[in-house]
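pasting for ref
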Amino acid sequence: MIDDIIRTQIRVPGPLYEELKERAEQNHHSLNSEMILRLQASLTEQEQLLKRMSLLEQQNQNILQLLQQLILK
């Protein structure tokens, strides 16, 4: 597992850094852990949102097809 970790540096705006630091303290995490957890959560949320959007698009297409069938009758 330790081989999978890549050390990197990022530039963070001061207010965001302070907010992350406060949240890490509140959650009893290190700043690094807090940032990783939040990044992972944002990716998971994004994937779920994209899946929901795809499902809604398919449902919209189905509704349009049904409406077209009703109009043509």
